[in-house]
Design a protein that fits this description.
The protein is about 5% helix and about 45% strand. By secondary structure, it is mainly β.
Length: about 170
Amino acid sequence: MRDKEKPLTVGRIICPWGVRGQVKVEPLTDDPKRFKSLPEVFIEFADSAVFYQIESVIFLKDYFPVIKLEGINSRQEAEALRGYYLKIQRKHAVKLPKDRYFICDIIGLCVFDESGNYIGTVKDVLQTGANDVYAVETPDQKEVLIPAIKQVVKKIDLENGKMIIQPLEGML
């Protein structure tokens, strides 16, 4: 069974911005504007997870959020966060339309064909523009690329950690 409470990673702190503790963030979400509506984020450090209220958000070039986290009030404090990932609890996640999934929920799924033959485990999701592609590692450590299209992916069962596909000719 999959962990429904697993946090979602929404960004990575690139660097401090300004002198008041703001941080420039690389968004790891389809909609960077969502940072405006987030009440809080957290960072997992080696020995703890620290929650931060979001005080303000502005955007650079309409894409990179610059976030002021409560309690981070200097450039030095912001510098100490460089490279860390911003995460959110599932309760703050956007509601996805039917048949849409978070990448972190797809990674780790066991992939089977419609006859029940085990193909491998999803190790990565490649975002190509037209459609996502699932990188699946087979039992013999080879990689198979599965296009995330309805003709191929027949069922995604997050509860049981399974994906059922109908491979195109020559795919496997």
